[in-house]
Amino acid sequence: MKHAILKRLKRTDHLPMLFIGSGMSIRYLGLENWEGLLRKFALLATDNDYAYEMYVQQAKGLECKDGLLPKVAELIERDFNLRWFKDDQFKENREQSTDEMSRSVSPFKIEIARYMRDKSRKHNAEYAAEIELFKQLEMRSIAGVLTTNYDSFIEDLFTSYTKYIGQEELLFSTLHGISEIYKIHGCCTKPESLVIDEADYADFSEKNAYLAAKILTIFLEHPIIFIGYSITDTNIENILKSIVKCLSTENLNKIKERLMFVVRAKDGETEEVSTYSKSFEGGKSIDMTRIRLMSYEPLYQALLENQAKYNAPMLRRLKQDIYELVLTNKPTGKIRTVNLEDEKLEDVEVVIGVGVLADFGQKGYAGIAADELYTDVVLDNREFDAESIIWKALPTLLSHNSNSLPMYKYLSQYSGDLPERVQMATQDKSCFDDLLSSTIKRNRERHYCRQETISSLCDKLSDGKCLQVLPHLKEENINVDELHSFLVRILKANPSALSTGGQAFKTDLKRAIRLYDWLKYHP
Predict the structure, then answer these.
(1) How many alpha carbons lie under 13 Å from residue 358 in its C-beta half-sphere?
(2) 3-class secondary structure per residue, 435-487
(3) Alpha-carbon gap, residue 127 to 27, rounded angstroms
(4) CA 426 to CA 418: how far, in whole Å?
(5) What string of DSSP letters covers 172-189?
(6) Angle at 318 (CA atoms; ends 314, 319), nearest 5 degrees
(7) Neighbour count for residue 419 (Cβ, 10 Å)
């Protein structure tokens, strides 16, 4: 199967985009489908064993402009919100949701988002091998991801990707088409963005023409692999309908090689790669490749063998920097411009050259700022040369930062002698406690959060408060992966947090990054 899939991928000569639906969340996180989610919240809205059936019957007696389930969701939301504000079972959740309430976010969406965040952390051990293969697709095997899922499973694995939530961000952001995640129905990290009730779908449909234009551009530039959707899924049908309206029959034939639909093989069905045709109004139809599988491992293995020469996050940064240069005509710190007349380039035919370790790049290591190291340790997005960091950047930076920087990531990639300043800094940090102030060490044993974990803190406290109390946790209670996900989320939500945040917040954030660097990379 892997070879048959790989053969289809090779025909397109471009990295594919993944279009991921709820089937993946059901498989890897144990989440419910849309109906199952509404059933769960119907029971929370009304004390009735047949609550969901009751809401379905009510919806059938009303006008359902966007289908039955959005109307059912609207009815459940109405009763759930009234109960949420007064029922004691939601008292603690209300106390933790003051920020959302100040923005008039629906409690129904607040609780769905909280439920999705909790479930996103718990992967199904049965599919551990598949999940590990899927995680490896991040760098060189796919261009990006589109999804209608609310959970954070994808971005938790693809930590170097840039995420765009909802139609607003998609429509009004500069998309680079590489190393990006488009969450078109919202995300659990932003409850108000969820598209679930009738009003949400009405708003979504109103803007759908603009979204379809964005998606059409993606479809024309990349192969699309649908995973976790039924071929008859309403979301997919609506998108395909919009595309059919825009393209002639001739152009529809041109994109048929680019559309691949992955379906689960049922009992008794054989695994196969075949052609499937879907018809639409006006006599038009779209042909696509149907990939029927029992396990997703052959698909992921084929994608891993169909790798690009350069990793996707690096290409995205390059496109972004060049875009900004062309747009503003002002080079950023990441791009060097030269006057060609001043260079002896008469015989050179290359106009643009890319080389992280070019001569000017080597000299530039001496000018690296401490915040760049903090960011790179968490996001792993700068591709620094470890030896150059250790010899050209750290000696100066350590002298200006009290010998305290995240440096063990680079030391773990280097086996030679160390500069004297770096050697001294490593000797100053011989154990975990050496990363903490005397005040923290004096008070932590009786601190109220001493027994907590990263995940339990995130459930109870704001990000700023989590950073403040984090160093009081027991070392064995700090899960490195949970800490990494927490720090990634902060830097993704506010890329300038290390420079523009309040002084206390910046201090706490940098300390948390140093703790992560030690726990992750210290031998």
Answers:
(1) 9
(2) HCCHHHHHHHHHCCCCCCCHHHHHHHCCHHHHHHHHHHCCHHHCCHHHHHHHH
(3) 8
(4) 10
(5) HS---SSSEEEETT-BTT
(6) 120
(7) 14
CATH of domain 2-30+123-305: 3.40.50
End-to-end CA distance of the chain, in Å?
Answer: 41
At residue 303's C-alpha, the angle toward residues 298 and 307, to 5°, is 145
Helices (H), 286-358: 297-305, 312-328
What does the pLDDT profile of the chain (523 residues) look like in tens digits?
888 888 888 887 788 999 999 999 999 999 999 999 999 999 999 999 999 999 999 999 999 988 999 999 999 999 999 999 999 999 999 999 999 999 999 999 999 999 999 999 999 999 999 999 999 999 889 999 999 999 999 999 999 899 999 887 877 777 777 889 999 999 999 999 999 999 999 888 887 767 777 777 787 788 899 999 988 888 788 778 877 877 788 888 877 778 999 999 988 889 999 998 888 877 888 888 999 999 999 999 999 998 876 677 777 777 776 666 665 555 555 554 444 444 444 443 334 544 444 443 554 677 788 999 999 999 998 888 899 999 989 998 998 888 889 999 999 999 889 999 999 888 888 788 888 888 888 888 888 888 889 989 888 888 889 999 899 898 898 999 999 999 999 998 888 788 776 788 889 999 999 999 999 998 7
- 3: exposed, middle or buried (C-beta count within 10 Å: 0-12, 13-18, 19+)? exposed
For residue 226, give the amino acid letter: F
Residue 523, CA distances (Å) to 63, 393, 407, 432 in order: 64, 22, 12, 12
**Six-digit token string for 264:** 């689960």
**Cβ contacts of residue 113 below 8 Å, gap of 6+?**
150, 188, 189, 190, 191, 194
Query: What pTM does this model have?
Result: 0.64
Each domain of the chain, given as residue ranges in start order, spans 2-30+123-305, 34-120, 432-521
In angstroms, rounded to a whole number, what is the distance separating the alpha carbons of residues 388 and 366? 9
Q: Are strands 272-279 and 285-293 parallel, antiparallel or unpaired?
A: antiparallel
Cβ contact 90:122 at 8 Å: no
Please give the single-letter amino acid code of residue 494.
N
CA dihedral 511, 514, 520, 523 (to 10 degrees): -130
CA dist 5 and 188 (Å) reads 33
Distances (CA, A) of 330 to 323, 326, 335, 372, 427: 11, 8, 10, 21, 43
Write the single-letter amino acid at 469. V
CA-nearest of 425, 317, 323, 429 to 380 is: 317
Pairwise CA distance, residues 335 & 275, whole Å: 46
DSSP 412: T
Q: Which residues pair with 262 in a beta bridge?
A: 291
Full strand arrangement of the beta sheet holding 259-264? 162-165, 180-183, 144-147, 17-20, 224-227, 259-264, 285-293, 272-279
